[in-house]
Amino acid sequence: MIEQFLRERGLELSPTKTVITHVKTGFDFLGQNVRRYPDGKRRIKPSKKNAKTFLGDIRRTIKAALGSSAADLIKQLHPKIRGWANYHRHTMNKSTFARVDNEIFSSLWRWAQRRHPRKPAPWCKQKYFAQHGDPGWSFFGEACNGDGQPSKIWLLRASSTPIKRHIKIKGDANPYDPAYETYFEKREEAHMRESFRGTRILRFLWCAAPLPWHMPHHNKNASRPLESTTPTRT
């Protein structure tokens, strides 16, 4: 049934990427693990492989920055941590984010000790770590602000990213049914409001001209691949 549904739209399942598994065993998809746990609840979490790959990239960045200042290192780490945490902000991520923060903290502590091999641990702690915001120690660096005055830059914690629960699609909603066009338009608009790029597009659509816009529908009788669902003005 699924193969027929996709075939009518010019798509097909990939035999090498399609896996049939029990929901209790779970599976990894796009960096996230989907599984039903013994309590009967289905949970989506960052996959272990994805977290391992992310931490590997972070460790390589820290190791390569031995000659950089703490502020420059933080500027390199911020987009990596923010991007990864935002990608997983819809999942059950509390324990994974806490573990990632601990691993990054350990890597930064080793970086500080390698950078100053002749300094004692209390000195490294005072120079690069302090309590800030959430309980625990945070990594910081010093840089000049816009006025030329020295100021502290604090490393972003993955666990500081707020969890944003995903709103499920109605079970009977079909994106190929014109009757649900308004429903999917509202979902797309809400999704765009959550991203910087999306809000820029919405401001352009609202300010350039007060014209209605819609998501294009694909002709199920066409043989060409599924079109993009990027909002277009009419």
Produce the secondary structure layout.
Blueprint: H1 2-7, E1 27-29, E2 32-36, E3 42-46, H2 48-64, H3 70-87, H4 94-115, H5 121-128, E4 129-132, E5 134-144, E6 150-154, H6 181-193, H7 196-208, E7 213-214, E8 232-233
Explained architecture:
The structure is a single chain. With 234 residues, the chain is of the alpha+beta class. The protein has two domains: 48-160, no CATH class; 167-234, no CATH class. 41% of the residues lie in helices and 16% in strands. The chain has seven helices and eight strands, in the order H-E-E-E-H-H-H-H-E-E-E-H-H-E-E. It has helices at residues 2-7, 48-64, 70-87, 94-115, 121-128, 181-193, 196-208; strands spanning 27-29, 32-36, 42-46, 129-132, 134-144, 150-154, 213-214, 232-233. The strands form three sheets. The protein has a three-stranded antiparallel sheet with strand order 1-2-3. Strands 4-5-6 form a three-stranded antiparallel sheet. The longest helix has 22 residues, at 94-115. The two termini are 34 Å apart.
Helix-residue proportion: 40-55%
Main beta sheet strand tally, sense and closure: 3 strands, antiparallel
- Which outline best applies? elongated
What is the total domain count?
Answer: 2
C-alpha-based Rg, rounded: 23 Å
In a few lines, what is going on in this structure?
The chain has 234 residues and is an alpha+beta fold. Helices cover 41% and strands 16% of the residues.
Label this structure with key terms.
234 residues, alpha+beta, 2 domains, three-stranded antiparallel sheet, 7 helices, 41% helix, elongated, disordered C terminus
